[in-house]
Write a structure and sequence with these properties.
Layout lengths: L11 H15 L9 H12 L10 H13 L5 H27 L12 E4 L6 H8 L10 H5 L12 H18 L1 H6 L11 H4 L7 H5 L3 H9 L3 H22 L12 E3 L7 H7 L4 E6 L2 H16 L8 H23 L7 E5 H19 L5 H16 L17 H15 L7
Parallel strand pairs: 1-2, 1-3, 3-4
Helix pairs in contact: 2-4, 3-11, 12-13, 14-15, 14-18, 15-18
Length: 427
């Protein structure tokens, strides 16, 4: 297994940031503050707002901050990243509450039978969602809205351009800092992205598990009742749909609900909660060879984690994500037994590779949406553009780098291979 320190994989920007910050600390500068009081005070000062309204985020935030301080062994850049992402989410919650207070009709909106793509990381969920996002009849979450979902009251155009530019700028920086991660999962401010970004604002999305070595938080996260996390995610979806209408100068028609296409691998852990909050959801389950998905997700998360600590972190990344893959598959299988058969469908990765049109016809029929020639053409164009720009296929990884093997992954994940008749995938 590769046990080199993370500093061997950090770009100049991160190494220079760490050196400068440590030098400032020598001359009396305080360590980057990750206390709850400091973070909340900063969010309130930067927004000029006081009320969060819904404070269900506090238990997850406290669990996360405790693990960051006691387990993560963060370098200065890791502390900076944790502080900035936390303040951003707190600010969005303050802005969102201001919108809900000023416009209570937002929460009266209906989310109608969302099509939710659920499956292991790296199993084709992104491809399916981005293809379906070409259908203008369906709403999808854009990356910039996921990071900055809340309009900013009192600002021109409710801060839309500022929200957009912030995300565009830090994604540009992210491509430099996390270059390998952006190869594995390309992101752009305008592209569709998963609702994990919205769950992050409740400090209960899986992304922190990839960013930081926080096994204590992970154990807490697995068994935490995420009902309020899902409810708040639904509130943010309603807010986004409402703010789009405000920008376009139109209003939702009476009796009309918002039809979303969503996706998030995390839902496998909490299908019962997902169904409680979205009882008419149509669930599209994706499947791919676990040897491919497990190795790929470990590699993806390590590209991020290695920038936030100077210690070797392949082993800790392996331990969290091997277990995450196993736990989510086990829980997903168990909870699917309680979901009506008419609300779930299975799609295999190789099916989409072989004949995506037939798969999409089946998915659309399942979702009760007409698969029109215009939609088919838009999807074909997206695939052609993706191939032309070589957005996928550049991710390289080896299970052995993480101290495991294909045989070990197969042993631990054989139950899911057998359950869904998942074929072995060639190299």
């Amino acid at each position: 297994m590769d046990t080199k320190p993370s500093t061997d994989y950090q770009p100049p920007f991160v190494r220079q940031f760490n050196r400068r910050t440590r030098a400032w600390n020598v001359f009396g500068m305080k360590k980057i503050d990750l206390s709850e009081a400091s973070l909340i005070a900063a969010a309130r000062a930067e927004t000029g707002l006081e009320r969060f309204g819904d404070e269900s985020f506090l238990p997850p935030l406290r669990a996360l901050l405790h693990s960051l301080e006691t387990e993560a062994q963060l370098n200065p850049f890791g502390r900076f990243n944790a502080r900035m992402r936390t303040i951003r989410s707190l600010k969005n919650r303050l802005w969102a509450n201001a919108c809900f207070e000023a416009h209570p009709e937002i929460l009266e909106r209906e989310i109608e039978a969302p099509i939710v793509i659920v499956g292991p990381h790296r199993s084709g969920t992104t491809r399916l969602q981005r293809m379906m996002a070409t259908d203008l009849r369906l709403q999808h979450l854009s990356t910039w809205e996921g990071f900055n979902p809340a309009p900013r009251p009192g600002q021109p155009s409710m801060g839309r351009q500022a929200r957009y530019e912030e995300v565009k700028n830090f994604l540009a920086l992210g491509r430099q800092v996390y270059a390998g991660g952006y190869v594995a999962h390309p992101m752009d401010a305008d592209w569709p992205e998963e609702d994990m970004l919205l769950m992050n604002h409740s400090f209960c999305g899986f992304s922190v598990l990839g960013m930081f070595n926080i096994p204590g938080y992970y154990r807490w996260f697995l068994d935490y009742d995420k009902t309020e996390v899902y409810r708040y995610t639904a509130k943010l979806l309603k807010l986004i749909a409402w703010s789009r209408e405000q920008e376009q100068g139109k209003a939702q028609q009476p009796g009309q609900g918002d039809r979303w296409v969503l996706k998030n691998p995390q839902h496998m852990l909490d299908l019962g909660t997902l169904q409680k909050v979205f009882p008419d959801a149509r669930l599209v389950f994706t499947h791919r060879d676990p040897i491919k998905t497990v190795g790929s997700v470990m590699s993806l998360m390590w590209y991020f984690a290695s920038q936030h600590t100077d210690l070797p972190c392949r082993a800790s990344t392996r331990d969290i994500w091997m277990d995450f893959c196993e736990q989510s598959a086990q829980r997903g299988i168990a909870q699917r037994e309680h979901i009506p058969a008419g609300q779930q469908i299975d799609v295999h990765y190789e099916e989409v590779n072989r004949d995506w049109r037939s798969v999409m016809q089946r998915v659309y029929a399942f979702g009760g949406v007409e698969f029109t020639p215009e939609v088919e053409q838009a999807m074909a164009q997206w695939l052609a553009d993706s191939d032309r720009d070589q957005l996928h296929g550049g991710h390289r990884y080896a299970l052995e780098d993480f101290g495991t093997s294909a045989a070990e992954v197969d042993r631990r994940m054989m139950f899911v291979r057998q359950r869904y008749d998942i074929a072995y995938e060639g190299k």
